[in-house]
């Protein structure tokens, strides 16, 4: 039985869940949620997720949201001995730290800088850009001497972070000054299972959204 995924493809956290599922070879039923139309506020969806956020999954009646929590659940429930979320406490702690860094620093700093420009027509805030660059610099440091984000193998951390970094890149924010990030990004694009289907297609939709909204914000 496939897991129900409620999502919007332009969302980085939603694409992270698609990457998790692809890496674990888990089938999902795709349920699009039109956030701009307020579908996340309908009573049926609120029963699944009172915070009315995407991504949300439903697995045999069990409902869960927040992409990194979903990733941990999928590995614990279906991953067996998968190294996506290693069982060694220290190795797992590093993966957790990188996931929490994405949740608490990198993605919020991007959202803080970019979304007010696109959705609110506000001018770029240079202080917010500085904070985003600071988070990218931290990621560049984490990757120094490390093949992947949390060691020598692909983990949940890479799949979550690549959804964010690819979104930053697609938004036109240069990552060229972070050579470790660039090297890692190219590696994950090549080695994450079914990357193009899970992440690339949604990125194209995100880019289309940006292009459609930009003329309104640049008037």
Automatic annotation (TrEMBL):
Keywords: Transferase. Gene3D superfamilies: 1.20.1050.10, Glutaredoxin (3.40.30.10). The keyword Magnesium does not apply. CDD domains: GST_C_Delta_Epsilon (cd03177), GST_N_Delta_Epsilon (cd03045). GO terms for molecular function: glutathione transferase activity. One of its GO terms (biological process) is glutathione metabolic process. Belongs to the GST superfamily. Homodimer. This is Glutathione S-transferase 1-1.
């Amino acid at each position: 039985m496939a897991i129900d995924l409620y999502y919007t493809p332009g969302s980085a956290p939603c694409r992270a869940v698609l990457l998790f599922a692809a890496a674990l070879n888990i089938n999902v039923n795709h349920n699009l949620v039109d956030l701009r139309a307020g579908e996340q506020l309908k009573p049926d969806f609120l029963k699944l997720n009172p915070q009315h956020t995407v991504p949300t999954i439903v697995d045999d009646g069990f409902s869960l949201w927040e992409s990194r929590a979903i990733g941990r659940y999928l590995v614990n429930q279906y991953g067996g001995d998968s190294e996506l979320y290693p069982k060694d406490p220290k190795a797992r702690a590093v993966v957790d730290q990188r996931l929490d860094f994405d949740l608490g620093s990198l993605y919020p700093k991007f959202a803080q800088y970019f979304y007010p420009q696109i959705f609110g027509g506000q001018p770029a805030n240079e202080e917010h850009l500085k904070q985003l660059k600071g988070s990218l610099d931290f990621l560049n440091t984490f990757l120094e001497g490390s093949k992947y984000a949390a060691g020598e193998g692909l983990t949940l951390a890479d799949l979550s972070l690549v959804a964010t970094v690819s979104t930053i890149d697609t938004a036109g924010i240069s990552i060229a000054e972070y050579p470790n990030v660039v090297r890692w990004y190219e590696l994950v694009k090549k080695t994450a299972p079914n990357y193009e289907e899970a992440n690339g297609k949604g990125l194209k939709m995100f880019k289309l959204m940006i292009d459609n909204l930009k003329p309104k914000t640049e008037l």
